User: What shape does this take?
Amino acid sequence: MTVRVERADAARNRKAILEAADRLFASANSPSDVSMDDVAAAAGVGKGTLFRRFGDRASLIRQLYAARLAPLRDKIGSGPPPLGPSTAPRERVAAIIDAIALVKLQNSHLMLALEDGGGPANDIHRSPDYRDVHRLIADLLIADTDRLRADWTAHVLLACVRADLLRHLTETEGMSQTQIRANLRNFIEHTLSR
Amino acid sequence: MTVRVERADAARNRKAILEAADRLFASANSPSDVSMDDVAAAAGVGKGTLFRRFGDRASLIRQLYAARLAPLRDKIGSGPPPLGPSTAPRERVAAIIDAIALVKLQNSHLMLALEDGGGPANDIHRSPDYRDVHRLIADLLIADTDRLRADWTAHVLLACVRADLLRHLTETEGMSQTQIRANLRNFIEHTLSR
DNA sequence: ATACGATACGGACCATCAGTCCGGTTAGCA
DNA sequence: TGCTAACCGGACTGATGGTCCGTATCGTAT
Assistant: This one.
């Protein structure tokens, strides 16, 4: 089996597309305002190229999301406390949820694009990102309770940091990021206490 | 100001459309599988009629949703315990959330259609239905804490019964409705204690 | 340096869908 | 029975995700 190497022009275009898409989603009011034509145009690339590289819209958005979350994943997987594996479970869960909230608050438009429904195909719950972090959190909680309840609790914690909820809290209800994180911290602490 | 009365044929068509849409969304795999043309055809009505009556897709779905939720709203607004106003706050909140979960579990496809993103315009958090029930719950919680925290907690409780989460739990994780409601009950009890 | 096959490019093209428009029809009333 | 406002329906439009294929480019073998 040969190692397929991506041609230089292909690599250049992939990068241009990701950057353009990132920029567009970040500045758009709503993800649906950004069409694939817009992305292609902004990247200075043909539509065919865009679709050959990324398959479809959902896939493009997923890759953007993955790129943004990569640093966080690394920190969680093999970083120093409080995110890294050496931290005590409950404390680590709290740190993880807080970190997720922070990333989403700071990348709200992009996160919104990913979590913005559109059929079962891109249900966040089915994405590897969600499943992985859910599994991790549920495993961290399992020491205190049974599997079913750990799974449930992990879902609830993640539901607290959904992009659209966070946006609503900041934009419509006028909560500051600080207030949100404070509430979140209280809530998690209370939820995880026995 | 005269009282505009809807003509008989118009009323008949409105009903036919609502019924057809209800049926289609209920049996479709995903809300996006149901086009407005499908609805019009199934209702035996022209597209023009459909749009004149309901304005746009989001509006149609909202009306379906409202119709499904009306009985619950009535029971909450002026019914007997445990949903009605005479119930003690915490107990009532628990009953309300459980009732919402039940309705959503029983109408999952339709509920999914409504909550299925699509720009800030139909963000559930902005719908009157959501705002009203959030306000009610937050007001019931205010006795135990401050405004900010009551608001937050109400949002979290409602996030636990979002249609897509419920669907994921039943369809992908294979939880039974009973298990979900049991977890929910435990969770609420724990959250509202102290 | 050159030639050549594999890979990639791009934009015209297609299908689908929400939403509009207007000529023809019908309900309700005098 | 006749009149008018309200209503009907389906052809039409504009936008969008996604496909196709003739042409251009890359990387390599010579």
About this structure: The CA atoms of residues 19 and 43 of chain B lie 8 Å apart. Residues 6-7, 9-10, 13, 40, 45-49, 52 of chain B lie near DNA strand D (CB under 10 Å from a C1').
